[in-house]
Amino acid sequence: MKILTRIARFVWNQKLVTLSIIILVAVVASALLVHLIAPFDPYAQDLVLRNKPPLTPAPGGGIHLLGTDPLGRDELARLMLGSQISLSVSVASVVISGLFGTTVGLIAGYYRNWFDDIMMRLVDLQMSVPSLLIALLVLYVLGPSFVNIVLVLAVTRWMVYARVSRGLMLALREELFVEAARSLGASNFRIIVRHLLPNLAAPILVLATLELAVMMLTEASLSFLGLGIQPPESSWGLMLAEGREYLTSAPWLVAVPGIAILLTTLSVNIIATWFRARTASTSAVRGGEEKITSEVEI
Hints:
- There is one protein chain.
- By secondary structure, the protein is an all-alpha fold.
- The protein has one domain (about 80-295): MetI-like fold (Orthogonal Bundle).
- The protein is about 75% helix and about 0% strand.
- It has a two-stranded antiparallel ribbon.
- A hairpin with a 5-residue loop joins strand 1 (about 55) and strand 2.
- Helix 8 crosses helix 9 (about 190-225).
- The chain is globular, with a radius of gyration of 23 Å.
- The model is unreliable at about 290-298 (pLDDT under 50).
């Protein structure tokens, strides 16, 4: 009963966050279960049904709730398939860029040696060039594919994690619990992994949540420009690109994936903002206790 009471209180007090969680869960569920819950085969074509409006009855039974695309494929099934690919690209690129960038920031901020100077100058250099421009140039040379898109997105965003983790590390390395660990003979590796890394987990997780929305928008932009996901696969950006030619005659071809991108990225940003505020308030209250615990458990 206590759990149900807490859930009900959370839903009542955080209505917008709850709605965002519901939207995100629905998107993830549709991505994972697309081949089980999709109303039609997302690859099945029927030129007789091309560009049909929403709520069009299907000849074999059922209804095309969101209409059909220029090849007669069900728009809802394509949308669900697109969520699978868009989320896969976004999550994979966030994981790769987050792991690499955080590792670089930890090492650079803790040791403050030549490695720090080189990596920070590299970060400054890369941040001076638009990420989308780098992605377009690399994909134009290597060619668009799932793996190339993930790697390009990771390469263009790792420096954000490096900056944040290095800044946090510069502040934490001077704390008393770190000095206590050094005085008791703890190795640098143990200090980083056991004492410093846990203090970076919450800020990096918030940053990764925000970056998920950025990656999704970037992937949609690349697919819209023709250097992202390629047919016959589907992504929300590719659906926008395919529907722009029919904007006046079949506006739902652009509206459906556009609304999906809007709601998903907005939900991710709302959840990340709430989590950041929650983490900040919790850290302010429990920060002293965590430092004392770290000193005792060296």
